[in-house]
Structures are given as structure tokens and as C-alpha cells.
């Protein structure tokens, strides 16, 4: 019985560790923009650092307004990551916004790693 419990505990540990893996900074930025492009405003919040969310809230800046700004009022088709640099618990992701008319606009975003999760931050 004791061996069965130990075996089940190890399996559970591997499942928890495997499910707890984090997205890369690039994947975090891609997921964030995807939510913005699809109007998933409440889902966008999970990719933003709490201090940035607080600042946005204090200035009356809601997610829908932020999404419209990020997507240039729906003119952006998608985002292509160009470069990712990670240094400790900070990262910078450079990207191109790809517009529906084919134009590209470069951008850069800073991220921090908090409790094992990458979050968009004002600076790193």
C-alpha cells in the first residue's frame, strides 16, 4: 500500500510540474496580441503585470481602449516575433505588427517573470 501511495505521489508530482510550465516571453506577447485582435479583453489581463494594470486603472484606461490602440482600431492582422532576449527575470521581445494591407510596424515590449509566469510590464 505504501509503495502504491509513493508511486501515485510521484505521478501526481510529474503531472503538476508538467502542467505548470510557463510560456516563453514571445508566446506571452503573441497570446496577448491574439486576445486583443479577437476582442478577448478580460483574457488580456492575465498577461499584464499587476503594477501596469493598476496604473492603467488609475488613469481610467480600460482593456477595450488598450486593445483598440494595440490593434490600430482593427487594422492589424497579426504579430510576428522578430527577437527575444531574456536576462534573468526580465525579457524584451521585438516584433512586427502585420497590417491587413501588408504594411509592417516594428514594436518592442518588456516583460518580467513573476512567480514563474511572464507578464508584460512597463519596463524590465
Q: What does the model show?
A:
With 124 residues, this protein is an alpha+beta fold. The chain has one domain: NTF2-like, domain 1 (Nuclear Transport Factor 2, Chain: A). The protein is 42% helix and 31% strand. It is built from 5 helices and 4 strands, in the order αααααββββ. Strands 1-2-3-4 form a 4-stranded antiparallel β-sheet, covered by helices on one side. The protein is globular, with a radius of gyration of 18 Å.
Number of strands: 4
Low-confidence stretches: 1-20
- Listing every helix as H and every strand as E from the N terminus to the C terminus, the arrangement reads HHHHHEEEE
Question: What is the helix content?
Answer: 40-55%
Q: Helix- and strand-based class?
A: alpha+beta
The major sheet is characterized as: 4 strands, antiparallel
Provide the CATH architecture: Roll
Q: Secondary structure elements and their pairing?
A:
Layout lengths: L1 H18 L5 H13 L3 H4 L5 H9 L4 H8 L5 E12 L2 E10 L4 E11 L2 E5 L3
Antiparallel strand pairs: 1-2, 2-3, 3-4
Keywords:
124 residues; alpha+beta; Nuclear Transport Factor 2, Chain: A; 4-stranded antiparallel beta sheet; 42% helix; globular; disordered N terminus
Amino acid at each position: 500500500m505504501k509503495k502504491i501511495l509513493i508511486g501515485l505521489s510521484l505521478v501526481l508530482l510529474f503531472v503538476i510540474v508538467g502542467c505548470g510550465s510557463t510560456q516563453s516571453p514571445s508566446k506571452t506577447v503573441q497570446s496577448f496580441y491574439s486576445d486583443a485582435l479577437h476582442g478577448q479583453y478580460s483574457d488580456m489581463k492575465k498577461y499584464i503585470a499587476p503594477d501596469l494594470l493598476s496604473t492603467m486603472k488609475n488613469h481610467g484606461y480600460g482593456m477595450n481602449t488598450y486593445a483598440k490602440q494595440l490593434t490600430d482600431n482593427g487594422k492589424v492582422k497579426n504579430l510576428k516575433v522578430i527577437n527575444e532576449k531574456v536576462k534573468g527575470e526580465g525579457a524584451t521581445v521585438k516584433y512586427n505588427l502585420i497590417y491587413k494591407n501588408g504594411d509592417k510596424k516594428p514594436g518592442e515590449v518588456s516583460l518580467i517573470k513573476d512567480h514563474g509566469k511572464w507578464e508584460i510590464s512597463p519596463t524590465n
